[in-house]
Write a structure and sequence with these properties.
alpha/beta, pyridoxal phosphate, binds pyridoxal-5'-phosphate, Aspartate Aminotransferase, domain 1, PyrdxlP-dep_Trfase_major, 7-stranded mixed sheet
Length: 397
C-alpha cells in the first residue's frame, strides 16, 4: 500500500516549486506564487481521477471525515453507523461533532453487513459510513438501497481503498460523500493529508468554508471575507499538497505493481484448501493494497500468523487483537475516556459496547489474516515471499 516507498524526483520537483516561491498556504498570495497552486492542482487531478464533481483537500483523512460529516449538517445527537473493524478515526470524526458512533457488525467482506445496518437504524440515524478496509469494498448496492429507503446519507470511507472500483466507478464516488487519506502509509501520500469528494454542490460549499474558519472565499481580500457559519481549521499546506500532486500522477503505476504482487501471493495461497479469501462484492475490484484471507478457525489463524512471523514474513496482521482497528481494544471509546467532558448527547446515547454482541464480527475477524502488499518488492522477491508464505501456512495446519 505505501506510496512513500516510491518517493522520488517527481515528488521533490513539486515540493521544490513551493520552496522556490515560499508560498506554503493554499489560499491567497497570488502575486508571489509563480503560478503554483498545488492544492488546487491536487483537487482538480483527483476530481478527474475519481470522477467526482467536487473535491476538497484537507489536512488528514480524519479531517476529511469530520468535514464531510459537518458539510452534510451532522451534529450533536445524530447517529452515524460505522463498522466494528475500521480505524479509530471513524469514531473520532463522529465524536468531534457531538454525534454518536453506532457500531455495527461486519461480514466476510470485512466491511459493514447490510442486514446489521438496517437493524441498527433509529429515528436519530443520519449517516451510514462503510469503511472500505484493506483495499476492498462494502456491498454498496445493498447499502445504497437501505439509505434510500430510510432517507440516510451514504459516506464512503475510502481512505485505504483509493483506486478500487465498484461497478466500474471509483470507490469514494458512489455514496453522497467519500473520503480519502494521504497520510504517510496510505497508497498515495502527502506526508499528511486527505480529501473529501462529492457531487453535491451544497456539501462542497459547506466543506471548504467549514475547514477554513468559516471563510466564504469570496473576492481576493481574505481579511474582508464573511463568515456565514462557525468553522474550524483543517487546511492542508501547499508542501503536503505538492507531494500529493506527484503521487496522484503515479497512482495507476502503483496500482499495477500492487495488483502484480497481490496476484503472485494469492495464486500461491490458492492451492491451500484451508485458505478462504475475503469476499469481494459482485462488480467490485480491489485496489490490491492487502491480501486478506480466513483460516478455518481462530486457533489456526493465530498459529498461521505466528508461523508467518517466524518464517520472516513481515507485514501480515492479525487485526482481531489489534489496538487500533478492532472494537475489542477500544476501551477508551467504551469507557468514554476523554480529557474533558463530552457532550451530554454522547454520554447519554452511546451504547454500552462492553456488553454488545458482535459475535458475527468476531467470527470473521478471529479467523482473518491480512497481508500488506508493498510496492518496493521486485517480482522475484514476491515469488520467493509467496513460496515462504505458502510453506508457513501449510506447516501451521
Ligand atoms: C488512515 C485512515 C483514516 C484516517 O486518515 P489520517 O489521514 O491518518 O487521519 C481513516 N479511516 C481509515 C480507514 C484509515 O485507514
Amino acid at each position: 500500500m505505501p506510496g512513500f516507498e516510491l518517493f522520488g524526483d517527481k515528488e521533490r520537483k513539486e515540493v521544490q516549486d513551493v520552496m522556490d516561491s515560499g508560498v506554503l498556504m493554499r489560499y491567497g498570495f497570488d502575486g508571489m506564487r509563480n503560478g503554483h497552486w498545488k492544492t488546487k492542482e491536487l483537487e482538480k487531478g483527483l476530481s478527474e481521477r475519481v470522477q467526482s464533481k467536487y473535491v476538497h483537500a484537507v489536512s488528514s483523512g480524519t479531517a476529511a471525515l469530520t468535514v464531510a460529516l459537518a458539510s452534510a449538517g451532522v451534529g450533536a445527537g445524530d447517529e452515524v453507523i460505522m463498522p466494528t473493524f475500521t480505524f479509530v478515526a471513524s469514531f473520532e470524526s463522529i465524536l468531534a461533532l457531538g454525534a454518536v458512533p453506532i457500531l455495527v457488525d461486519i461480514d466476510d467482506t470485512l466491511t459493514l453487513k447490510p442486514e446489521a445496518v438496517e437493524k441498527a437504524i433509529t429515528p436519530k440515524t443520519k449517516v451510514v459510513m462503510p469503511v472500505h478496509m484493506c483495499g476492498s469494498m462494502a456491498n454498496l448496492d445493498a447499502l445504497k438501497a437501505i439509505c434510500n429507503k430510510h432517507g440516510l446519507l451514504l459516506l464512503e470511507d475510502a481512505c485505504q481503498a483509493i483506486g478500487g472500483t465498484y461497478n466500474g466507478k471509483p470507490l469514494g464516488s458512489i455514496g453522497d460523500l467519500g473520503c480519502f487519506s494521504f497520510d504517510y502509509v496510505k497508497t498515495i501520500t502527502c506526508g499528511e493529508g486527505g480529501a473529501m469528494i462529492t457531487n453535491n454542490q451544497d456539501y462542497y460549499e459547506n466543506a471548504h468554508k467549514y475547514s477554513d474558519h468559516g471563510h466564504d472565499h469570496m473576492g481576493n481580500n481574505r481579511g474582508a471575507e464573511e463568515h456565514p457559519f462557525l468553522g474550524y481549521n483543517f487546511r492542508i499546506s501547499e508542501m503536503n499538497a505538492a507531494v500529493g500532486v506527484a503521487q496522484l500522477a503515479r497512482l495507476d503505476e502503483f496500482l499495477v505493481i500492487q495488483k502484480r504482487n497481490y496476484t503472485i501471493l494469492r495464486e500461491a495461497l490458492s492451492n491451500i484448501p484451508e485458505v478462504i479469501f475475503r469476499t469481494v462484492p459482485d462488480g467490485g475490484e480491489e485496489n490490491y493494497s492487502f491480501l486478506n484471507f480466513f483460516m478455518p478457525t481462530e486457533e489456526l489463524a493465530q498459529v498461521a500468523h505466528q508461523e508467518l512471523i517466524e518464517s520472516g514474513v513481515d507485514g501480515c496482521f492479525y487485526w482481531y487483537d489489534n489496538n487500533w482497528h478492532y472494537y475489542k481494544k477500544w476501551e477508551h471509546l467504551t469507557n468514554l475516556k476523554s480529557l474533558g467532558k463530552l457532550p451530554k448527547d454522547v454520554q447519554e446515547a452511546l451504547p454500552d459496547y462492553s456488553k454488545a454482541d458482535f459475535s458475527e464480527s468476531d467470527k470473521w475477524m478471529s479467523r482473518n489474516i491480512s497481508c500488506l502488499i508493498k510496492l518496493g518488492w521486485s517480482e522475484e522477491e514476491t515469488v520467493a515471499r509467496a513460496k515462504t508464505m505458502a510453506e508457513a501456512i501449510k506447516a501451521s495446519i
